[in-house]
Write a structure and sequence with these properties.
The structure is a homodimer.
Chain A lengths: L11 H14 L8 E2 L1 H8 L3 H13 L3 E4 L3 E4 L4 H25 L2 H17 L4 H18 L3 H20 L6 H16 L3 H25 L10
Helix pairs in contact in A: 1-3, 2-3, 4-6, 4-7, 4-8, 4-9, 5-6, 5-8, 8-9
The structure holds a DNA duplex.
DNA sequence: TATTTTTAACTAGCATACAAGTTAGAAAAA
DNA sequence: TTTTTCTAACTTGTATGCTAGTTAAAAATA
């Protein structure tokens, strides 16, 4: 497990949640593996309590399955849960990009534009940085629409989806993702909800094609009930 | 605080979460009041630990604001968070009722129909029972579409909305709510997504009108940043 | 009396200890 | 050898005590 230093502003519980989340999403902790509270607590230099609380939160999104008195199972890649996460993101964010056409102020547009400039700069240079900018772009849409609580809920479920996305980093064309973002931005700037909706749905559709490839290529991580 | 008996199948943590949730939604615990872990633990006959964990989960939806070393503030009625909850429910469930038109099997339709029959039976007889049946009706839609994880996420946020709904029980016309449900059901049965969408949006629109009435009538519970 | 300082009683975060249930392997019995 | 029983080492759930920080009222000072 990769253990980054603790940020001084976060509590031990938040630190534990952040580190475990990152390690699960990056597949550093493998799907289907068992992790114990004590084991993680020792690795992070904490007691069981904050780790236990982080585990509880992770279990709410079913990314971690707590088996009382047995242990904690890092969930296998589950197509049903990925479908739910995709459904939630697409449904919510499609509605948001339409609303953003009305709500986006000049400063919001500038922030989106700055983010896109960075995406274009890091394109084919730093995949991790690009992924972070991608997440930031989507988060900005929520902020423009004053829907940060929805962002938290969607993010929690998206962990299933994010884990697959990191698997597919090499097969997805970063170039197209960034140009998709540009198209969404242009539609918001032009205050054209129909175009924004269309551009967003085209964007999200790209992650559909990957699933078939991934499910064949990484089947050791795919849960049984996935087809 | 109303303390129902502990269900033998639930853990102390789940029990604490259920009891506190019910008391907050029913306004038995007033918006803006402070509650302590020890106080609730004593009332429920538990130690602080499971109550602490229940508080953490409640704080995730911002229905409870944990102020470290100070106490826990039961959130005031917040129009922004209600708007988010409404937005999430309307957006997600509008998409679901469309999908349900394809996905609903004969048995699903029968379950919806049974639920509706009970709603019609309890109409103007038992408001609490009707509310429970309403919740069950919406939950069935999620189950038909295999989106129970989304249901959990939406439910958590809906607490803000549910708290207002209980305030508005007398002003909302139960008769219309039940006939709305019937219209949604008919559309799903006829496999008509456009009609289902329209019926659902008409249904949810009813809760818009109430807000203005409630915000004037119960202003002692409304947070400052609400307009 | 008015203002500052102190103190004692709170709070939640966290560490630790124990309780209760599971599991795998050793030991005993067939 | 094979099967069964037992035991010891695990697991998470929960209780308890301690820590650090906040608050409000009492006490000291002006």
């Amino acid at each position: 497990m990769i253990v980054p230093p603790k940020n001084s502003s976060e509590t031990n519980r938040e630190y534990a949640f952040r580190v475990i989340s990152e390690n699960i999403i990056s597949l550093e902790i493998e799907p289907g593996s068992m992790i114990g509270e004590q084991e993680i607590a020792t690795a992070l230099g904490l007691s069981r309590t904050p780790v236990h609380e982080a585990f509880l939160e992770l279990s709410k999104s079913k990314i971690l399955d707590i088996l009382p008195q047995k242990g904690c199972l890092v969930s296998m890649i589950d197509s049903d849960l990925i479908r739910e996460a995709r459904f939630l993101r697409i449904t919510v964010e499609t509605a948001l990009v339409e609303d953003a056409c009305e709500l986006a102020k000049e400063e919001d547009l500038r922030e989106l534009d700055d983010n896109l400039a960075l995406q274009e700069f890091y394109l084919s240079k730093d995949a991790d940085k690009l992924l972070a900018l991608d997440n930031e772009f989507h988060k900005l849409i929520y902020r423009i629409c004053n829907k940060m609580q929805c962002y938290y809920m969607v993010s929690l479920m998206s962990m299933h989806f994010d884990r697959v996305r990191s698997l597919s980093l090499h097969s997805v064309k970063d170039l197209k993702i960034v140009s998709d973002h540009r198209a969404i931005f242009d539609a918001i700037k032009k205050k054209d909800p129909a175009a924004a909706r269309a551009a967003f749905q085209k964007h999200m559709a790209r992650f559909d094609l990957d699933w078939n490839i991934i499910s064949r290529e990484y089947k050791q991580y795919i849960s049984d009930n996935s087809k």
